[in-house]
Amino acid sequence: MKVLQVLLLAALGCSLQVQGRILAKCDLRNQLAVAVGNMTWPGREGTLLNADDVVAQLVCLAEKGAHFDTGALTELAGGQLDQEHTGEGQPHEWRNRENCTLRTPQPWMLYGIFQLSNGLSCNDSANATHNVCDLACSKLIDDDISDDISCLLMFFKNLANNGIPPPPFDTMRRVRLLFRKQCTGLIATDYFAGCPPPPN
Q1: Which among 81, 128, 135, 137 is least surrounded, fewest beta carbons within 10 Å?
Q2: Is the residue at 1 inside a domain?
Q3: Domain CATH for 106
Q4: What is the DSSP string of 83-107?
Q5: pLDDT of 67-109, one tens digit each?
Q6: Where does the signal peptide begin and end (predicted)?
Q7: For 44-178, where are the E strands, in sequence order?
Q8: DSSP label at residue 74
C-alpha cells in the first residue's frame, strides 16, 4: 500500500512540474551572442556597451533571477521589486489618485529564464496588460528559449528607442526588475572566464 502511495505522489508531482530545463551558462551565452549580433547598447554615463558585455549582463540576469531555469515562475507580492528587496510586513496600499481610494497592489508573476513580467512582456490571460512581445506567458516557461530571447531583445530595443514607458507606476517598477545591480558593469571576459570560446 505504501509503495502505491509513493508512486501516486511521484506521478502527481511530475505532472505538476512546468516543462523547463537548466541551461549551462556558456550555452546561454552562445545563444544570446547569436541573437544580439553586433548591437551596442547605452551604458552608464553616456557610454556604449559592446555586444559581449551586453550578453554578459543578460546571462547574469538569467543567473540571478532564474538560476538558468527555463521554466522558472516567481510570484511577487504587488509592489515588491524582487526577492532581494523584501521589506518588513506586507506591501503598503497604494492610493489611487483618480478617485482617492486605497487599493492593494496585485501580485506579479515573473516567467522563464529572464523572469519577464506578466505586466509588461506577456499575457497571462488573467490580467489585461501591456504585452510588449505579443506573447502568451506560457511560451516563456518551456524549453524553447528562442521566444524568450526575442521578447527580451524586443523589450530592450523598445526601451532604447522610446525610453521608459509612462506611468502607471506599476509599469516603471516592472521595468526595474530587468536591471539587477549585480549585473551592471560586468566585463564579458571576466564573467565567462570558465567558458570555451564561442563558436563562430
Answers
A1: 128
A2: no
A3: 1.10.530.10
A4: GGG--SSSPPPEEETTTTEEEPPPP
A5: 999 999 999 886 565 544 444 444 444 444 444 455 566 788 9
A6: 1-20
A7: 48-49, 73-76, 94-96, 101-103, 108-111, 116-117
A8: E
Separation CA 177–CA 159 (nearest Å): 14
Grid cell in block for residue 8: 501516486
**Separation between Cα atoms, residue 199 and residue 175, nearest integer Å:** 32
User: Domain count of the chain?
Assistant: 1
Q: What is the pLDDT of residues 80-91, one digit of tens each?
A: 655 444 444 444
Residues 6+ apart with CB under 8 A from 18: 71, 73, 141
Question: β-strands 94-96, 48-49: how paired?
Answer: unpaired
Average pLDDT of the residues in 26-48: 86
Helices H, strands E: what count in the chain?
6, 7
Cell numbers that stand for 156 in this block? 530592450
What the block records as the C-alpha cell of 72 is 522558472
The reply to whether 2 falls in a domain is no
